[in-house]
Amino acid sequence: MTPEDFAKLIHEVMQPLQDDIKALQKFADTAFDDMPDIDSAKQELKSFMIERVSDTRLSMMKDRDSFKGERGEKGITGDAGERGAKGDIGSQGRDGIRGKQGTPGDRGQKGDSGDRGEVGVGTRGDKGDNGERGDTGKAGKAGAKGERGERGFITAVEPWVKRDYMPGELTTNNGGTWQARRKTNTPPNALSNAWEMLSDGIEIVEFNDDSFSIKMASGEIRKSGSLQGPQGEKGGSVDLLEGYDETTLYRKSLDEVKESGSVWRAIKDGLLHKPGSAKGKGQWTCIAHKGPKGDAGKDADNEAILEELKIAQAIDARGAMELLVKMVEDYFADAFSSAKLH
């Protein structure tokens, strides 16, 4: 293929494209004004382009065999051309197609507070639903003391008698306290439905040979153990000693000492100080104080008293003291009677 043939081929190939561009510009100047929306314009443009490209390709296919030559070698890359001058600003184009909604942007900084607006006058809305129950609040302060109320119904509780009792009345019976549940004249007891027992009490105590039982107003029977306790240890005998001895180990409550005309009983065990002394305080208790000196009696009477006293001491020291007191009382009684008769 000669250079002239190649230039002719280029001209014939480019000519249809130039015609298509002009036809597209002419179509755009007239067709889009009549389109109702962008989607209709897109469809019309698509149909126009398909028709023009189909005609151009069909024409080129008819003539390509007559211009087809051998494939030439790859030409040398030409130098870059100079940058063209800046063109004039074109007229403002039509609004583009609305793009998709973008992603939300970052939250901006808080703006300054605006001026306070005027108070609006709105209509009252509907009552809202009840909210959830809130937490229990703190206990409030104690309120002021209220006025004294009326006197209560309960009065003095008296023992039950045969009469009508109204609901709420109180009475006592068989050791317990009862309140009437309804109108009744029956005596209160644990089996009655007309009475409510408020407090239990002892109705009766029964004694047997070695035990006793307690019957309560509620009907409950409470039994005790045996009345007879366990046998105690054998007690020691009381010894009345003539005079105090500082070397004697005295026994608490079992040793008694005659000292200075009085009788003292030991209240501690061990070596004790002399009865009646300051150091002996808290160790002895005086059970018989020395009496005043009496008048002289008859010899026969004194001898009889001493004889009886010796006999009593041999039997029981405590009994001797009791016998001595009785004999003195009898002596003075007889003396008083004789003097009165003379």
Describe the structure.
- This protein has 342 residues and is of the alpha+beta class.
- Among the domains are: 64 residues, no CATH class; 66 residues, Seminal Fluid Protein  PDC-109 (Domain B), CATH 2.10.10; 54 residues, Seminal Fluid Protein  PDC-109 (Domain B) (Ribbon); 50 residues, no CATH class.
- The protein is 30% helix and 15% strand.
- Strands 1-2-3-4 form a 4-stranded mixed sheet, with no helix packed on it. It has a 4-stranded mixed sheet with strand order 8-10-11-13, with no helix packed on it.
- The termini are far apart.
- The mean pLDDT is 75.
What's the CATH architecture name of the domain at 158-223?
Ribbon
> Which residues form runs of ≥5 with pLDDT under 50?
none
Class from secondary-structure proportions = alpha+beta
Q: Any idea what the radius of gyration is?
A: 71 Å
